[in-house]
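Supplementary Text 2. Reproducibility record for the structural model of the 807-residue chain.

All settings were left at their defaults, and a single model was retained for analysis rather than an ensemble. We include the record here because the model underlies the residue-level annotations in Supplementary Table 4.
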Amino acid sequence: MLYCPNPTCQTLNDDGHRFCQQCGAFLPRRYLWAATLTSPPSVDALLGDRYLHKGQGIFLDTLPGYPPATDIEEVPPVVYAYLRLAGRRLHVPLVYDLIVDADHSAEHPIVLLEEAALWQPGQAFGTAESGKTGAAPAFTGVLPLPGIADLWTRVSGRRQLFWLWQIASLWQPLADENVGITLLQPELIRVEGALVRLLELRLNTGGVAPSLADLGSFWYDWCAKADPDIAPFLENLCTQLVDGTITDPSLVMAELDAQLALAHKATPHTVRIATQTDKGPTRSRNEDACYPEGGTLKTKVLQSDAINASLAIVCDGIGGHQGGDVASNLAIAALDQELHALPLTDLTPDKLGQALIDSIEVANDQISQRNDSELRMERQRMGTTLVMGLLRHHELFLAHVGDSRAYWITRWGCHQATLDDDVASRQMRLGYALYRQALRHPNSGSLVQALGMGPSNLLHPTVQRFLLDEDGVILLCSDGLSDGDRVEEHWDTELLPLLKGTGDLAPLSNRLVEVANTLNGHDNVTVGIIHHQLPVAEDDQQVIQLHMLSLAEQSQSSRGGGMGGGTAIATPAATDHATNNATNNATKVITEADQPTRRPLVSLISLLLLLVLGGALLVVLMPPLRDRILPLLSGNPPDEAPVPPVIPTETPGAIASPEPILPGNLIQIGRTPEGATPLRLLSQPDPAKLDGIFIPSGSILRVLDKPEEIDVPWLYVVVCSVGDAPPPLDDTVLDSTQPPPAVGNPTPATLLPAPIAQVGNEGWLEEQTVIPLAMPVSEDVVPTDICPPSTSPATDSDPSLEGDPLG
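Retained model, structure tokens:
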């Protein structure tokens, strides 16, 4: 059972449902891999009172709407490498939570990993694929991805080279974090189509770092089984590694690059690009910009010897009416001019990467100089985030600054390819906190850098280079779409059909904008979709698809036709995990009769029915009391049971989301969801106003008025009491007078906290931003002298605003 992530619902749902059966909210499934697990618990056991064991060391978070509660003062050494390598998230999983128990100390906890090398068969293959493989099994569980050794002899030589190139690209980053030994253990190297993904990281044994000669010896075992077309090259490469002729990882990548270029030389690469931008339902102007211009659909065939490439850019302006739209359009124009002047075919990958950084710095300087010429300081400076993708035949370069994102979608899954330049990500990469722990900080989403906020010597754009060896979609978007995990929620229904040949790119960008406006709606939204096609990779696609479906069919057969993944399967992945964690507990198939029951209450009530009939009826009829009694009957103390907060009973004069809010209602403001914009009280009913003051969680408001003459519903409220949540940092406010930190990514500006609302403040709130946070409150908790009856709304000229922070 999963608790609904909606804080005003929190209904229990069967994990077979995609949406909450009570409120319709999306139910995210966070499947986690347990690293450093010495003795796996029984299937269906709860770890840490919230993580349900699905077998094979895979756990499901039953409280996906609640951040992990673990607080760590010092990050354990085993975890540090994950945090430092977060920028490699396409290959390396992120730490979700740490569990300490009798067998695992604080220095060596159970490490639960998200975005691990796991596969949900139902995502990509829910129906028959043109009759090639038949329908996927009716299986809704999750499996470890196949190991590279399992598929090595069954794919093309080009795919084998592609996998080796990715391993080589990870060698130096992992070696720097003392986990290079990971790349010498085949059971940890998994493959998701063309993408190499690591199951977990291992610390070097005895502190001794492996060498490139060790890597060459490891690859030698694969030479004999390599495709005949590449076997001589691979054997020669391994020989040079072993005898010390090659001692630099970059030279290994250069050798593989050259061989891959030959393999791709005769392969035309079709690229289609669609863009769309919209101001959204609540903003008066659009501060976003994109290239090509919004509403464009382009198709291009890239040849390896042609002087052409494909480019898409998304910018999200910062500064409101102070010039966010000016900054984003300046950036687009500067980048367009700089990049189209580059001799793309003459530049090596390193030089092209540096050229992208130089172009971004030119755009930054143009915006910064505009700010300086107009004497814009601190809060008045305009800026913009940036994310762009440039394709040069089989190469993809992704560059970004700020929190606009790039997602890489293949037939196998959807992965965030960029790491936001915000406070939470910086804390993680510096090794100060786990990412989910950092997200709980009220300033976690504040930007640490953006274009135009300072000189280029303080700007640090991120440029990543990838190689393409299968069909895929690169989605570029502003946070108007990415907030609330909307991409993760809709990728399989909106973007996956493109890769199955059943979708149409032309209307897709409009549908994604509609998703953002309907489910988020608090910001402008811009999307850029790059669909790249490599038809000759179809053989590799089919081989891997058949193998993965075979794993799913074996799992389904072992489960006796059951649904939901409740049985541990004796697959190679399970054996590897048990061996590597030094446990003697063999993985076995557990029948339905052997499974431990999760509801002993049913048997208990059956035995005591005559004695507790009246009490049982009371429990059924009163959900709050039931939530307190069930943990006691199951043997868990109430404070250990994963029971969400109880919403107060609705009383006259109070409201409950998502009902419309009316004048006279009392509202208590709940916790702001991760990634959402903090609630602000405005002096006028205009979302572009920058004079808002922060309303902390727990504050109580009374609605004084809701004018019908305003097209979009707005509420005029008074603050009755103020919660104790700390103020967020204003992501439109950058203080250039403060120096950057001495370590990590230098930040060009220090972000300033937003002012906090005080009791008696009056102002405007947009109804749709309040409804998701509104909780009912009793009339008798608010003194009438602090929260007066409804009055007429004030304006900027109203003398009642004199001395008020909003005035």
